[in-house]
Amino acid sequence: MPVQTSRRPPSLEPGAPGRVPPIVPPQAGAGRRRGPGAPKKRAKRKDPLWARLTLIFGAVLMMTSGVAIVGAKAIIGQATSSIDQGNLLGEAGKTKAEGGKNLKGPIDMLLLGVDARERWAADDVRSDTIIILHIPASHDQAYLISIPRDTEVEIPGHGTNKINAAFFFGAQNGGGWEGGAQLMAKTIKQKTGIGFDGAAIINFGGFKSVIDALGTVRICVSSDVKSAHMSLVDGKPMWNADAKKTGKPRTAVVHKKGCKEMEGWEALDYARQRYSVAGGDYGRQQNQQQLIKAMAKKATENGMLTNPIKLNQLIQAAGKAFILDTGGVPIADFIFTLKGVTGNDLVTLRTNGGTYATNSNGRESLNDLSKEMFRAVKDDRLADFVVANPEVLSTRK
Known about the structure:
Elements: H1 48-57, H2 72-79, E1 107-113, E2 129-135, E3 142-146, E4 152-155, E5 159-162, H3 165-171, H4 176-192, E6 198-202, H5 204-214, E7 217-221, E8 225-233, E9 236-239, H6 240-246, E10 251-255, E11 258-262, H7 264-272, H8 281-299, H9 308-318, E12 322-325, H10 331-337, E13 346-349, H11 368-378, H12 382-388
Parallel strand pairs: 1-6, 3-13
Antiparallel strand pairs: 1-2, 2-3, 4-5, 6-12, 7-11, 8-9, 8-10
Helix pairs in contact: 1-9, 3-4, 5-7, 5-9, 7-8, 11-12
């Protein structure tokens, strides 16, 4: 399998004209709660390194070269003692021929967003956010590629369907969120050929507490967007279903065009919208990417990572938003392997040029350029592919 050298290609050296510009952009189960009624697994605790690690696998990549890892071994031992983990990959992990558990080569993570709510059953959830996080063998940059939720695929054992249904089918019959993630990973590997080093289930609902711990995040709205999910009752944001039960007057939540500091509920509600957003699901993907970028920036400014009190609040909040699978590799190994990747090295990419592509059946599919992009991920030549095809870069900032 082709592997990049330990340095970027000449065209990607810092300051070089061809270097991929940093652009950025994930969501369920909660720490040790894998979703309502989902099966419980091993638990493993949290400290600054876990905060960084958690957000790395959430596509935030908080780790910065300016923050020292002090007392590394002792801290990591304590930090990883209660991290929530599960088997999210099943048969989709990298084989020995693909690099196995060796982190010296490229690293590919599957990030699944589940926008679950407490009243929903664990086996009645679909993963509408599907992202592949690719870190080349040089370990100095990271890329995120969103797979459209309605992409038609062959789901092992369940025939042809939309890709987001793979999580639903896998969660049936006691599979829970782990079973959902395993079938999704298997479906994607069958579709793209990409094997995974690890995976994470990200709960966008859990992200609210992370943003609240950060304070606010700066989000730019490209055009007015009316929320399809929330209303204001007496000035308080509520789910429409809950707002209706109050019997009180409701005011529609409208996200106005322009840039502003958003609280957690507001930023997440905007990131959830697709019906009134230009580009539909593709627009939503870009808005979710923008949200994660904003979280990464906020987390690394104003001394957030060096303030013990703020950092502890962030750690506790982040621990409730993720379920993690490192493919059997010690978490400490991941931490040190990725320590050179910063938030500014995160590049977000889009499939199908940000618009719908259909197959002969009139169903959503991946166009030829997107298929080539996934082959570039598999062969670890994505940096060169992006330089040659800059149109795959996300335009939402």
